[in-house]
Amino acid sequence: MVHRCGYIAIVGRPNVGKSTLLNRMLGQKISITSRKPQTTRHRILGIKTTPEVQFVFTDTPGLHRGSRHLVNRIMNRAAAGALEEADVILMVTDCTRWTEEDDYVVDLLKSVRAQVVMALNKVDKVKDKDLLLPQIAAARDKHAFADIVPVSATTGLQLAELEQAIARYLPEAPPFFPEEQVTDRSERFLAAELIREKLMRHLGKEVPYSTTVEIESFEEEEGLTRVNAVIWVEREAQKAIVIGKDGRMLKRIGQEARVDMEHMLGTKVFLQTWVKVKEQWSDDERALRGFGYVE
Ligand code: GDP
Ligand code: MG
Questions:
Q1: Is the CATH code 3.40.50.300 the one for domain 4-167?
Q2: What average pLDDT is seen over the chain?
Q3: Which CATH superfamily is 187-290 part of?
Q4: DSSP state of 229
Q5: In whole angstroms, what is the distance from residue 198 CA to residue 183 CA?
Q6: Model confidence at 67: pLDDT above 80
Q7: How does pLDDT run across 25-35, given as a tens digit for each residue?
Q8: Which among 273, 271, 270, 272 has a CA at the least distance from the CA of 224?
Q9: What is the distance in A from the centroid of ligand 1 to the CA of 47?
């Protein structure tokens, strides 16, 4: 029996469902999701092992055009690096909308050597599946995709077919990672991400992009994990928004993050959060290093 193993870079414009798709294929939440673009800031490995195949996915931050801020440039660098190293590229698109940003992604694919499989996502939103056929034809005109598979990341529809399509183009190789390993990131890192997810979901339009989360301590005791986290913002006014009236926003964010952490860790979690101001962390190389953006 041949064993296949390789790297799959997941690319696509923001909001098409890349992180949702990855979490669903892994059966575990390792990449945070929200309706807002730029939710994914870090490159995260997601590993799925079956008897015949080990898939090593990289969920990349969306590719951003004309990035002014250092944090965006670093995100682009991470995405470009993943494209060069990939054995297979999985381009995710939203079947309800093709945009110029999708064309921008297709343009980038022209210069890579790897085969590209396209996941036409969110087909649960389309009642009449015949409507997908012209879209598949249109996509074929734009690029020589190795395969195009209509899927739904939220319902799980056709994900087995998608995995088969990807596996076909992976090289013959032994597994790179132990079979029980699901990601290269620590629980401590994932805990910070879960808090950031709640910030992305609950804060208005601007503030979440000016926040980041740092785990100050992460202590595991018998059946209990104690987590102290700092939410960094850039201005006093943002601090007030994160805390909310009578502390209600921070309480809600903390409660929801705690529930997710308990799920992930399988222990009770005691979570304490503080909000602190550090001006312009998103343009400060040293601060970014501290927050895990620079490897
Ligand atoms: P990313 O920016 O490409 O990583 O997108 P996310 O995974 O964060 O998803 C963006 C939004 O699309 C979220 O609100 C998801 O719940 C939603 N979404 C993702 N996949 C599907 C899908 O298959 N069907 C539907 N209806 N919504 C989806
Ligand atoms: Mg994402």
A1: yes
A2: 88
A3: K homology (KH) domain (3.30.300.20)
A4: E
A5: 21
A6: no
A7: 999 888 888 88
A8: 270
A9: 20
Do residues 142 and 106 lie in contact, with contact meaning Cβ atoms separated by under 8 Å? yes
* 43 ligand 1 Cβ < 6 A: no
Please give the pLDDT value at position 16. Answer: 94
- Are the C-beta atoms of 237 and 207 separated by less than 8 Å? no
Distance between CA atoms of 110 and 108, rounded to whole angstroms? 5
Length of the chain, please?
295
Report residue 70 as tokens: 């250092």
Nearest partner of 274 among 237, 235, 227, judged by Cα: 227
Q: What is the dihedral of CA 90, 123, 35, 67, to 10 degrees?
A: 40
Residue 221, SS3 per DSSP: strand
More confident residue, 253 or 286: 253
How many other C-beta atoms can be found within 10 angstroms of the C-beta atom of residue 266?
A: 8
Residue of 11, 15, 16, 20 best suited for mutating to test ligand 1, as the one with most atoms within 8 Å of CB: 20
Q: What percent of the chain has pLDDT over 90?
A: 66
Where are the domains positioned within the chain? 4-167, 187-290
